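Cast an eye over my tokenised protein here and flag anything odd:

===
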Amino acid sequence: MLLSVNLFMSLDGVSQAPGGPDEDTRGSFTNGGWLMSVWDEGCGQAVSRWFDNCGALLLGRYTYDTFASYWPKITDPDDPVSGLINNNQKYVVISSPVGDAWAETTTVLGDDFLDEIARLKGVSDSKELQVHGSIQLARTLHQEGMVDLYRFLVVPVTIGPGFGIFDQGGPTYSMRVVHGVVTQNGIYDVEMTPQAFEGRKTVAIDDGKEVVIETEQKAPDA
């Protein structure tokens, strides 16, 4: 299964608490709800497209508990997202028991969760193992080089300090954009696959003209 990370992201890289002020206040975060004032039809279409590819959910404990307190209450049969979230298999990275809301569709991943996720990725399936929210888990998977597809709705707001997938480093990639459109309210709906970094280039002058050339790579210190 491909492992995809699906996140709402501010222009300065924050993915914490997009939906409301009380969604996630860890780290004294006070800017929750930054997405909803610019949410538009294109955002809804993007999220529906994300879930069309979902075979199973991979969630951190905080997001799992947040989802479990909300989505079981959405019983509208015409809501495709709620149906997928409520009924699909869910894998959750935790060290304590979960509640009863989704007991039949939840598998707990313990201390060896990275090995267990690698095993899930090895299962032959046309659908994806999808991370939604779960920013600290998403960050760990990025740092471990385990993400096959990155999907973001990049919102034209800046938030300041807050949790983000790239805020603690990770592998060096070139990203191949496989989908990219701008919604009515200027939100960038983008999907990217990581590729080997293509090397460094620089601007030089050759016969009076600006040219782009490869730079010499320095050998690592012994």
